[in-house]
Amino acid sequence: MVEVLVSAPGKVTLFGEHAIVYGEPAIVTAISRRLYVKAEPRSDKNLKISAMDLKIPGVILTFVSDTGELTLETDYGRVVSAVSYVKKAIELTANYVGEFRGVNIEVRSSMPVGAGLGTSAAVAVATVAAYAYALGYELSKKEIAKLGHKTELEVQGAASPMDTSIATYGGTIYIKPEKPEPIIEHLKLTEEYPLVIGYVERKNTTKELVAKVRKLKEKKPEIIMPIIRLIGVLTEDAKKALISGDVVELGELMNINHGLLDALGVSTKELNDLVYAARQAGALGSKLTGAGGGGCMIALAPGRVAEVSTAIDILGGQPMDAKMSAEGLTVEVKK
Ligand code: MEV
What fold, for 3-179+326-334? Predict the structure, then answer.
């Protein structure tokens, strides 16, 4: 019996979240916190999902027919939304490879789920790879990233390819959405950038926050579009600063990026408090990361990691250390 263990990294967006939804570039790095998906083929057409870290003890879905559609026999209420990424990833992958086999899926996570660290993208790409490899199909990273992005698009309604790309390729990437493929540049960093991540409870989903920015843009396009374009401009500067190792410039650009995200209405008082406390404790720069509405902020704090972590902790934020540029998707097949 084949058993496949896939892992995918979480991520933090260094620059450009939200603006990327409107075609601007972003810079994103994989972090050393990971999500794991184990898959084992079954002899029937059932899909059994257990994900204790996502508070899912065990859900069974069944392929109804060879159309590859999966149905839930019971109404699991809220659980359904957490399961939906696994379900959609398997439906899309089964249709892509043209084989509808039951599998047991187990999901584990070493990062908080729904915190803005890209867990839904990590679940999507890891499930695509786990299902395909368990059935004997060795998909390329490009195919996995594409199916993962399609999963996020279908579950969330809107998503840039940023999170699913970084969860697949790892490292630090500059990404600009273009049709038919996004432009992806892998950035070679000469420095180890000491990042502190601070987490506060999240009040809104990514989908809600993306919709909030869209609404504001439709209401005041002449104000909001320049803000979005400015985020794109500073992201181009940040790419140069990251490559040359100019930490002071990076810190300054992070602060500007945070101000612009706040202007788009996606920050919260709790996040702003953490962002300013980090700067007061000696960070060169700090900003919210991801969709906002609570969730995570990051601080660039060379020589000040302990002080910045304490400042975040005092305010009730959960400090997390994580290394940047972590490895992308890994697949281990045990026979
Ligand atoms: C979410 O991690 C980042 C956003 O830019 C949405 C997206 O890129 O799909 C807010």
Answer: Ribosomal Protein S5; domain 2 (3.30.230)
